[in-house]
Amino acid sequence: MCGIVGYTGRANAAPILLDGLKKLEYRGYDSAGVAVINDKKLFVSKTAGRISALCEKTDNGENLPGFTGIGHTRWATHGAPTDINAHPHTSNDGKFAVVHNGIIENYMSLKEELVKKGYEFESQTDTEVIVHLLEMYYTGDVKIALLKTAARLSGSYALGVICSDYSEKVFAVREASPLIIGLGVGENYFASDVTALVQHTKNVIYMDDGDFAEITPDDVKIFDFAGKPKNKPVNRIEWDIRAAEKDGYDHFMLKEIMEQPRAVRDTLSPRIKDDRVCFDEINLTDEDINKINRIVITACGSAYYAGCAGKYTLEKLTGIPVITELASELRYSQPLIDDRTLVIVLSQSGETADTIAAMKECKKRGAKVLSVVNVVGSTVAKLADYVIYTWAGPEIAVATTKGYTTQVTVLYLLALYIADRSGRITPSDYAETLASIQKIPQLIRQALSMNSAIPTLAKKYHIHNSMFFIGRNTDYAVALEGALKMKEISYIHAEAYAAGELKHGTIALIDDYQPVVALCCNKAIMEKTISNIIEVKARGAQVLALAEKDSSKIVTIADDIIFMPEMDDYLAAPVEIVPLQLLAYYMAKENGCDIDKPKNLAKSVTVE
Ligand code: F6R
After folding, report:
1. pLDDT average, residue stretch 440-456
2. What's 558's domain CATH number?
3. 401 Cβ inside 6 Å of ligand 1
4. Is the distance from the beta carbon of residue 356 to the nearest atom of ligand 1 less than 6 Å?
């Protein structure tokens, strides 16, 4: 939520900042702004709306000359998305400008104190207290003022600061919100995410909580909050700029859907050597594994639904009970977690506030936390005892696709790994399961190519304002994610229901033409789902079924059918979700929605 960027060098800062903001726009897109230093004065331009509006206002940055500056793209928390609430915020004396991602929890008491001291506030944001505190503590040394300011703040913040007394410096501070420094030649940067940096440099420093950076064109100095210098490693970003571009597709979402065979293959292949699953990156000992008496999977949104899909496979292969819990619930639920619990945390961004809080709660209770994360160096990765990266590459569309499929695939591999290490699987079942997992990229490719009818189906179904997604067991888990995809990008109300539950109340809502998407890929219970299809058909529903190619019975019952390749019941989710992603995509397109940036949403939900 919210993206921040900073630059100091020998080029005009504003066009570079605007370019960086465009790359970060998926983090928030209701208002934006930039501030630069020119001739020892600050110049600020900000506006409600998208980055494109800011580009227009600043003539693509050309009417804001200056070699040092900061920028922000906002997802409103405190105060409506207006010009005034947009960042950067400036101090009353006009010396400081601040951009902020996060939430200052104690801003009300700080505001009261600052108002009493005569500081004038113009916005409704929590952020504005920061810039007035800086002015209050500033006696000529920004570092001292910033460290004193940081000591007064509670909550989460990644801050970018410029001061008109220092024409060649940007300052950056991190506490519980992502922040990365990019190292160039004669120029340096900071940003919330590497996507804003990769076109300029592949050398980055990941800031940790409690880090403060003083950045000039030729140098980056990092300190802790006590002001002590820190030595931090320089990391190399492995992917190039094309990964963060649309590459000819109309939308990032479609590009990312199509990338899934590659993303899943890249996630699988480093972990399979000589027909064995090997997670070289996690040092779980036999003792650690044999101690596990319960697995708790926690995450938010689609990542949680990935956990729901993985649960069946983990339980089947390992015999260990698996509980899935929403991170936002787990943290307040006095969870039954102890040192025999393996907690698996799933997060594409690695920065989701509720997920991080749940993780901390589990660690406090003595559990070991294994995280499955897509963003290298993210907070979830840093806090976990063990990290498995999903090598999906940058995911830009707000609605996750390849993030989900790679997470589920890692859970399948992990299930096999734990089953094997704890002696719960026979060699032949092991070999068979691994072979099936290895087929997933190919099956996704088939699922993509088998569904050329989806745009036509979208034309038929997009006129409805409500849909049900039904299925049992593994199909139900996929239905949850399918319905979320539909809601978030097409704005059609979609509800996932365990098919057997319909008759316990919800069937009252089924009448003529009500669309029901019926997932029938789990062959073991397909007959049961078919009975539920017949029940809704008898009440007038239009059924769009998802089933394997030779499910002839369904062909005669459903109104429409999306065919799937033949899959293992317990390893189907990353394949089965693909047509549902495409259906949501084309329905959203029919409805004229802003597919990559759905209303009210943002990627990387760094607030509770
Ligand atoms: C939905 C979606 C969200 C995320 C959720 C968790 O398409 O993307 O529901 O899955 O906000 O995000 P991460 O995985 O970054 O923790």
Report:
1. 93
2. 3.40.50.10490
3. no
4. no
Q: Which residues are catalytic?
A: 2, 603
- Residue range 477-518, pLDDT digits in tens: 999 999 999 999 999 999 999 999 998 988 889 989 899 999
Asked if residue 348 has its Cβ within 6 Å of ligand 1, the reply is: yes
Q: Which atom of ligand 1 is nearest to the CA of 403?
A: 14
Question: What angle, 0 to 180 degrees and rounded to 10, lies between the N-to-C axes of helices 128-137 and 142-152?
Answer: 130
Q: Which of 207, 237, 267 is the last residue of a domain?
A: 237
Amino acid present at 566: E
Nearest partner of 384 among 287, 283, 513, 478, judged by Cα:
283
pLDDT tens-digit profile of 116-158? 999 999 999 999 999 999 999 999 999 999 999 999 999 999 9
Do 37 and 136 lie in one domain? The reply is: yes
- CB of 605 shorter than 6 A to ligand 1: yes
One domain, residues 157 and 301: no
346 CA → ligand 1 middle, Å: 9
Pick from 395, 410, 438: which residue ends a domain?
438
| Ligand 1 center to 380 CA (angstroms) | 13
Q: Given a cut of 90, is residue 29 above it in pLDDT?
A: no
**Domain of residue 70, residue span:** 3-237
Atom of ligand 1 nearest to the CA of 404: 10
Helix (H) and strand (E) counts for the chain?
A: 20, 27
Residue type, 427: P
Nearest CA to ligand 1 atom 11: 301
- 271, two tokens: 């972990």
Distance of alpha carbon 524 from alpha carbon 388, whole angstroms: 31
Task: Report the CATH number at residue 104.
Answer: 3.60.20.10
